[in-house]
Amino acid sequence: MARSVTIGADDTAQLSQQTDGEFFDVVFDATGNARAIERGFGFVAHGGQYVLISIVRDNITFSDPEFHKRETTLLGSRNATTEDFETVLAAMRAGHVPTDALNTHRLRLADLPRDFPQLLDPAQGVVKAIVEI
């Protein structure tokens, strides 16, 4: 069964429990956040795949011994088609993607000038922020 999960600050134990310590056969990252990408390596099951969709300017580091121990496959992708987006939207509409959990922060447009610097602070753990009108 496919499961979608958003990575947050205190989730390793919860994800381990939900997957009986196996974690996920395929992990996708489309955050564009180097810290989130680096954390994602730890959520790939033995023999699993890690798919990086977004591009970041930063260097990405990971534990090579852990990567090899898990026999991980790393795939970079940036060529999504219209059909790919339609598939994702259909999965979201069908409730297969926990859209409420995907957004780590939410703020009002009127508060954006004041709160925007907090969104840039790595200590805040921002993965995706929603700005509401």
Number of helices: 6
Number of strands: 5
What is the CATH class designation of the largest domain? Alpha Beta
What radius of gyration results from the CA coordinates?
16 Å
Output the CATH homologous superfamily of the largest domain: NAD(P)-binding Rossmann-like Domain
How do the strands of the widest beta sheet line up side by side? Answer: 1-2-3
**Domain unit count:** 2
State the helicity in percent bands.
25-40%
Q: Report the average pLDDT across residues.
A: 86
Structural class: alpha/beta
Going by CATH, the architecture of the largest domain would be 3-Layer(aba) Sandwich
Main sheet? 3 strands, parallel
- Give the overall shape, derived from the CA principal axes: globular
C-alpha termini separation: 36 Å
The name of the CATH topology of the largest domain is Rossmann fold
Any low-confidence stretches, pLDDT <50, length ≥5?
A: 1-5
The ordered H/E elements are HEHEHEHHEHE
Q: What fraction strand?
A: 15-25%
